[in-house]
Structures are given as structure tokens and as C-alpha cells.
């Protein structure tokens, strides 16, 4: 099943363009008029639009993920990345999205570094 992604505002828009060329559905924070919104609001927007969230903000999204699960709330997955090169991010996301079904990401944190070939 096709993935739909929501990019937190720190993720470069060029990555969204590169993934769209490869056929992925990507919505950026800027396109969703969420620039400057809290991390909680970003995750809620991803949930509302039925998308997995992609972010570099590891320190805030790990606790938010745990809080959501503790409260019985659900999300479509949080993909956390380091600020690697665009090429590495494309490679990692392409590998992940090819290998997994979107159902595999539900309520999960996925570490993009695990999908980047070094």
C-alpha cells in the first residue's frame, strides 16, 4: 500500500520534491500552513492527514511518541532521521518505503539510519 509522508519543518523541501519524482505522496509543514507549530501539532496534523511523520527532531518526538501510546492514542509512524545528505535521506526513505507496508509503521518509531547503506 502506498505511503503518505508528512515532513516536519526541518526536513528540506528538496527532499519532498525528490521523493515526489519517485512517486511518493509527501506533504510538507510549509504546504500544510503549520510552520512554527508545536511538535504535538505537527504530529496531530500527520495523524489528521493519515501520514507518517518524518523529522530530525529526535529529542522531542521520542517522548511525544511514548506519551501518545501511554494515553492510548495512535499515529501512522514517526520516521526519525539525522541530518544526513539529501542523497542518503532519499536512499534510506526509498529503501524503507519499498521494504515495509504502511501498516508496519503504525505506532512505531523508525530510525532512518537503519535504512541507509554506508
Describe the structure.
This protein has a five-stranded parallel β-sheet with strand order 2-1-3-4-5, with helices on both faces. The chain is an alpha/beta fold and 118 residues long. Helix content is 39%, strand content 15%. The N and C termini lie far apart (28 Å). It has a single domain (4-115), classed as 3-Layer(aba) Sandwich (Rossmann fold), CATH 3.40.50.
Q: Secondary structure elements and their pairing?
A:
Elements: E1 4-7, H1 13-21, E2 25-28, H2 39-48, E3 52-55, H3 58-70, E4 78-80, H4 86-99, E5 109-111
Parallel strand pairs: 1-2, 1-3, 3-4, 4-5
Helix pairs in contact: 1-4
Short description:
It is built from 4 helices and 5 strands; from the N terminus they run βαβαβαβαβ. The protein has 118 residues and is α/β, with parallel strands linked by helices.
Notable features of this structure?
single chain, 4 helices, five-stranded parallel beta sheet, about 15% strand, alpha/beta, about 120 residues, Rossmann fold
Number of helices: 4
Domains counted in the coordinates: how many? 1
Which segments are poorly predicted (pLDDT under 50) over 5 or more consecutive residues?
none
The ordered string of helix (H) and strand (E) elements is EHEHEHEHE
Strands in their spatial order, largest beta sheet: 2-1-3-4-5
Helix percentage range: 25-40%
Amino acid at each position: 500500500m502506498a505511503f503518505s509522508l508528512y515532513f516536519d519543518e526541518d526536513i528540506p523541501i528538496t527532499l519532498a520534491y525528490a521523493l515526489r519524482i519517485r512517486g511518493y505522496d509527501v506533504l510538507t509543514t510549509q504546504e500544510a500552513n503549520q510552520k512554527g507549530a508545536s511538535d504535538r501539532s505537527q504530529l496531530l496534523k500527520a495523524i489528521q492527514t493519515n501520514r507518517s511523520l518524518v523529522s530530525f527532531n529526535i529529542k522531542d518526538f521520542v517522548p511525544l511518541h511514548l506519551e501518545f501510546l501511554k494515553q492510548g492514542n495512535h499515529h501512522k509512524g514517526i520516521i526519525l532521521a539525522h541530518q544526513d545528505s539529501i542523497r542518503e535521506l532519499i536512499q534510506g526513505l526509498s529503501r524503507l518505503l519499498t521494504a515495509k507496508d504502511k501498516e508496519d509503521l503504525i505506532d512505531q518509531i523508525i530510525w532512518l539510519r537503519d535504512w541507509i547503506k554506508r
